[in-house]
């Protein structure tokens, strides 16, 4: 029932179907974008307005980091640190990320035995609460090229609580 010719037809059918799907994907991408994907100009053929820009401006209004940090809750910060625990330790040993005990006031890129990417140097010389706030909000945009894969803490209250907790570890 299954001879060499039958197997050849089955494998050829799968390869042909894969080729059709890959070709269809290439055609769909070309139709969706303008410019054909060549050079620096690569824009979408159409944009659907969602109003996200308007709502993001209203979300930024509120108390400043300094105001929130002045009334930060250390206990809540220890709970927020649970998000950091997967990569960072507070016992003086490095894990996936450098240890965080004594981080507030410590020089940036200063933990011995940890291989930094070099992207953090653009933040400054010292981990001040303000620098930590900027970095923890969105690590990839604050220090492009950083090895830290964490998406960031969007709420200013969480960042302030976490920084207050880390400050107690000095």
- Top-tier CATH class of the largest domain: Mainly Alpha
Largest sheet: 2 strands, antiparallel
Per DSSP, the total helix count is 7
The radius of gyration is 25 Å
Query: How many domains make up the coordinates?
Result: 2
Order of helices and strands: HEEHHHHHH
| Helix percentage | 40-55%
Which structural class is indicated by helix and strand composition?
mainly alpha
CATH superfamily of the largest domain: Cytochrome c-like domain
Oligomer: single chain
Q: How much of the polypeptide forms β-strand, as a percent range?
A: under 5%
How many E strands? 2
Distance N terminus to C terminus? 76 Å
Morphology call: elongated
Q: From the 3D coordinates, which CATH architecture of the largest domain would you assign?
A: Orthogonal Bundle
Here the CATH topology of the largest domain equals: Cytochrome Bc1 Complex, Chain D, domain 2
Mean pLDDT: 84
Low-confidence regions: none
Q: Describe the strand arrangement of the main beta sheet, using strand numbers.
A: 1-2
Question: Can you describe this structure?
Answer:
The protein is mostly helical and 170 residues long. The chain contains seven helices and two strands; from the N terminus they run αββαααααα. The protein has helices spanning 4-32, 52-60, 65-70, 74-80, 129-137, 139-142, 156-168; strands spanning 33-34, 43-44. It has a two-stranded antiparallel ribbon. Strand 1 and strand 2 form a beta hairpin. Helix 5 (129-137) crosses helix 7 (156-168). The chain is elongated.
